[in-house]
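Case study: Thymidylate kinase.
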Amino acid sequence: MIIAVEGIDGAGKNTLVTALKGLIDARTLSFPRYEDSVHAQLAQEALHGRMGDLTDSAYAMATLFALDRAGVAEELRPYKGAQDRMIILDRYVASNAAYSAARTGDDGVFDWVYQLEFERLGLPTPDLQVLLATAPEEASARAKKRESEDSARARDRYERDSDLQNNTYAAYVRLAEQNWAGRWVHSGDSGVILQEIEKL
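Here is what the predicted structure looks like once written out:
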């Protein structure tokens, strides 16, 4: 099965993914794949102000993140709906939908992201999507603390924009409420999430 953990920067996605991996036999994968994907690396350069005005376009950035995921589409497909294997993703397609809606102010971009990633690029839809219920203020404080403790974790343009983080969280809530691209659970409790996984 494909389990996607979603949330804004500093929400605790990596912590939850690590906790879940300690409870169930699953592979994990994080997006963006900055170490392995040229598309993710270009997006990272842009977010740190080294690609001119590229970040000015929400659609250009969303396309780079989508192409990053498309690079492992073949690896992900065998997990879809499988009962004998599981992969837990730290961010997936919904992150593109949420951030793009927050940047454009238009939920119509939800459909554009769905068509781009799931239909045109052939990524499998997740079996379960988990939205971490971390308040934007708390998530921002965590991101700032992480940056102060590790110079390699300098916040990028998106992470420094508190309005964007607030709007992205609100967009995530709307995606979860409409069960966009599949089933959602709104929780940070690994026990609750395991119960939802058992229902699949």
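For the exam, be able to explain this: Residues 162-177 form the longest helix (16 residues).
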